[in-house]
Protein 1
Amino acid sequence: MTAQAPDRERVVAGRAALELRGCEVRFGDRVALHRVDVAVHAGELLAVLGANGSGKSTLLRAAAGLVPVSGGSVTVAGGRSERADVAMVFQHVHLVGRRSVLDNVCSGGLGRLPLRASLVPALFPRELREEAMACLDRVGLADRAHDRAGRLSGGQQQRVAVARALCQRARVVLADEPVSALDPVAAEQVLALLSELAHAEGLAVLAVLHQPQLARRHADRVVGLRDGRVVLDGDPAGLGEAVDALYAAEVPA
Ligand SMILES: Nc1ncnc2c1ncn2[C@@H]1O[C@H](COP(=O)(O)OP(=O)(O)O)[C@@H](O)[C@H]1O
Ligand SMILES: [Mg+2]
């Protein structure tokens, strides 16, 4: 059924889909990111872990071009703009609850339409609706296409947000605590979906996760932040206690 999944070793070995090099972000006098290096490759789910205030959201926002970096660089492979190639998924789902699930997914593709056609859902072209339907099918929700988005469960709404990112044809998905508001079963489903999309379709997924256990189960690689610095980067299975130390009050001497 999975047609021609890309050879994972090959895509991972290639150029990074998203690369932050020596990134520094300041808020006034406060340095929120200190020379951070992070690369995410097509075909992998990279989890970002760290205590509250360690800079996880700032890292994602810098990657998306939503906060300026005062040093270093952010590179998105693919040749289009960051805006087109990078999609964001948030903890609290940003869907228009009174519109249909399908219209919400279509909105991911509006950047490709002329302005007039993008303003009125009734004018969305058939090709966009068909593409959105295929994206919904990909997340297992084609049968809910015509329901109002607000009627879906939290986990289903988060999968609709993922379908919207697919309809945007994003190559990089940045997810800031995408499962923190979900019950454990829905959280597993959404992470399994993100990981499958990374592996089967070659998306580069960077997800901030609240629980190390979820990272161990679903991530291909883990980056740990502490006080705005990358303090670990590796295979989730091999990191062991180093992950738990991210949340300790003091760095062990
Ligand atoms: N817009 C902002 N203005 C000022 N300080 C900010 C802003 N956003 C984040 N910070 C500060 O930057 C640091 C990192 O925040 P954040 O990236 O939100 O951490 P995390 O997502 O890991 O909890 C914190 O000290 C936070 O207070
Ligand atoms: Mg945060």
Protein 2
Amino acid sequence: MAKIKVAVLFGGASSEHEISLISAHTVLLNIPKDKYDVFCIGITKKGHWLYYPGEYDDIKTGKWEYNTDCCTAVLSPDALHRGFIVMGSDGAFLRKADVIFPVLHGMNGEDGSVQGLCRLAGLPCVGCDMTSSAACMDKTVTHKILEFAGIRTAPFIELRRFSLKNTDGIIEDVKTKLGFPVYVKPACAGSSVGVSRAENADELRAAIKIAFAHGEKVLVEKEIIGKEVECAVLGNGNDVIASVPGQITPAEKFYDYDAKYKLGTSVLDIPAKISEQQMNELRETAKKAYIACGCSGMARVDFFACEDGLVLNEINTIPGFTSISMYPKLMENMGIPIGALIDKLIQLAFCSDNN
Ligand SMILES: Nc1ncnc2c1ncn2[C@@H]1O[C@H](COP(=O)(O)OP(=O)(O)O)[C@@H](O)[C@H]1O
Ligand SMILES: [Mg+2]
């Protein structure tokens, strides 16, 4: 039987570009080669798409971009092409694909944009579709959907760039509606990029400025005191499994970018150190949230487990896939090793009842 042609997309015009390179390296090393014929499309930080025929190890380091065998490639939105138009040195050719696997984190990859392009291209795409990706990328939209579904999230205030004309008003609002300390974050970023904690009005002003450097919409959230507990969800429609959750104890004052990827000193505990009752409730809530947001394939659902109950923090539709990442570790703990997980994710992309 002919192998299934998988195009793995990596990199991306995103603040999480470097994480994607490491995630993609893990995916590429572990994808079952007996079943899948894999090729790579790298997207530079500037958003240039390249067909990359080189070594997987050079992806991790960022060296791939400078490989002279790279050539410009575009995913054709023409549904009859079903693949990439590659501008090779001997002229353009069509590299057909059966399925796209976007291993892209954050903007321009996890946010519905690539998923929409796959839809136009008539190609199945691993993970969430366009709408659910977009809904989970924008934390204000996620909060609103979850509220509608009766799932508790942190109280927040939404800021748009035009709101900045009245910063005194914002500060008043924060004082009366939330109270300090607060967390300030871009609505559409990830990996803690642009996230800061503010204890007073001055810190709030500075935090807002930082967050707006990463997007047009910002959330100011009430600080939630609780354990950071994450649950891996896998499946389509309402046929989904939610893993035994894991817990992160950040090395830094909060789980910021350095604590996540650089220092490697944050502690991951599987299972999370919460009561069995809270664990069961968390797994049910993760599934409920996944279904409410219309997710398919996979998502990592992150919570704060507090003394007075659970608060859902966010849903990541393309969670980290590095060797220290929670999603693959949680699935491995459920008896699904990474190779089988990748296989399952690709198979789920082909299910017509995606939603
Ligand atoms: N409302 C909050 N209360 C307490 N800590 C928070 C809050 N929001 C974010 N944090 C801290 O900041 C980290 C990053 O924020 P998060 O919303 O998860 O954004 P990202 O998408 O960048 O991961 C969280 O893991 C947590 O440590
Ligand atoms: Mg997070």
